[in-house]
């Protein structure tokens, strides 16, 4: 018998912060908010410095999600474990869900994984996270509450040797993205802020969370990316929340 992915001493794979039946529509998601690795997996063969890099988590998003949830009296659904264990914004059995190499760093603990091992990680972490989102949405729907999904992500200032000038990026496309386009317009009006329109990433078929939860429920949604050098300290994260929150609020009125 193989050792369970999560043991009783490991934290739960998902945390809900804030009231699930908040009257306001915003629900914040942190697909890559956590950086923990289950005890059963050790370090995945990855050094400590790399386990703090963007390959392991979306830096700053855990705190940003908490601040925004507190500001709006909303819910933040936060993933606990590192995206290197299983990426919850990827189809569970896709190659990108458990990468063998990420941004040039080998992940020995993900090399030549058996399908049973992949299935165990999905069952322990990926599916409980998405089931928590589905249950939250079902509860809100039953209560007659409107919902807008806001998936929070962060990105590196430099990737593959190229500097990224955008301080924030709005990812939109497909059904339900009117809210995202209004947020894009609002951020473009923030003084001294350089905003990417589907940059540094664009919505594509690698995205999993929004297609799984927003599309079948006909929800408005937004994926927003914040550059990680703006999220390096608690004060910096608070400053991002300060200029982001009014834009998210105003876009609800469009």
UniProtKB/TrEMBL annotation:
Gene3D superfamilies: Zn-dependent exopeptidases (3.40.630.40)
InterPro entries according to UniProt: N-FG_amidohydro, UCP029730
Organism: Croceibacterium mercuriale
Alphabetical list of Pfam families matching this protein: FGase
Protein's name in the database: N-formylglutamate amidohydrolase
Superkingdom of source: Bacteria
